[in-house]
């Protein structure tokens, strides 16, 4: 398995590499600029020397001293000049050396001869020698004498200055990198430590500890993440409590019919009840138990996003309402309730999991039939981008006490069964991006289901 690097290491590596790259680029740029400066400065000094010499070439100077005298004239024109001079003939043979620079003079004269430098031409020429690169420039001393003043300057003098600056720059780069490492370590600690704290919080949440913890981070992103984890913790805590309540309620709801079935079965066994007397109760309680288990399984399947999740299909709302009415028609006939439907808008379509919406409508219709006095009315209308299904009964309505909790799981109102039917309806509708509302009309209860239209 590949070893994963920590955030601190990555920040250190990337930031240091970026800083090093910038500093190296600066060093390279400085080196190139230094070399260009050396060339330009050497050419400038050589050009100044040429101007100085040509302006005073008519002075009479004795032989044997002329090379040194010309060097002195050049330095009088520019005390900082590094230009030296020797007198050569047309074949670049030294006529008179500069006694201060005899060795370099011979090397330059030989290199100029090898490079076939043209004498008397005002251009500056670069020649390579064993002592490094030189720039040379010549001037004819007299029209009567075939001798030339060969002026030259070494680039090594300027390069030495540049090299010293580059040495200082390298030390500065090393110091900057060291400062960068210290700064990045300080910066990364400021990032990594909060992450460790948030990691600890997430682990505690994973272990079932939903205690709220605020680290008071100053960074917005970390503070937002801290808040999100606390919100997730609160939701998980609520969900955990809901699960506990759910299992307690399920256990209670299952226990009631099982206890009744067990009691009547024992009554038959010990002769307390005749089979005929007990059979109706046992069958009724078994049916109740079967419906409860079926509702719980359906609710669990609907809320699950895993295996068994059904794809949505585009369906006509009026067809779905009619199908639900047909599915509940038997219950309405047995209870003697009248059912009517009014479709104000036909052809409305919605993308739904048909079985889930049908189950929601079935439960609402059955609930309306149970609590109505004589009739139930169903209407289908269009409200903006939603199709609205209203189911109204003529019963006593929903009490103000029960109304806020009517869709809560296992909440049983007046003469309720097991308190899960309307919870299934609410979950199914909201899962489809719709809404479900319950209220009173003054002459009964009304349930409104709104589904987004396709």
TrEMBL record:
Entries under Gene3D superfamilies matching the protein: 1.10.287.130, 6.10.340.10, Histidine kinase-like ATPase, C-terminal domain (3.30.565.10)
Localization per record: Cell membrane
Keyword terms, alphabetized: ATP-binding, Cell membrane, Coiled coil, Kinase, Membrane, Nucleotide-binding, Phosphoprotein, Transferase, Transmembrane, Transmembrane helix, Two-component regulatory system
Membrane-topology annotation of the record: Multi-pass membrane protein
Electron transport listed as a keyword: no
Uppermost EC category: transferase
Pfam families (alphabetical): HATPase_c, HisKA
GO molecular function, one term: phosphorelay sensor kinase activity
Keyword Ligase: no
UniProt xrefs under InterPro entries: HAMP_dom, HATPase_C_sf, HATPase_dom, His_kinase_dom, HisK_dim/P_dom, HisK_dim/P_sf, HssS/ArlS-like, Sig_transdc_His_kin-like_C
Coiled coil: 215-242
Chief localisation class: membrane
Protein name: histidine kinase
Organism, as annotated: Youngiibacter fragilis 232.1
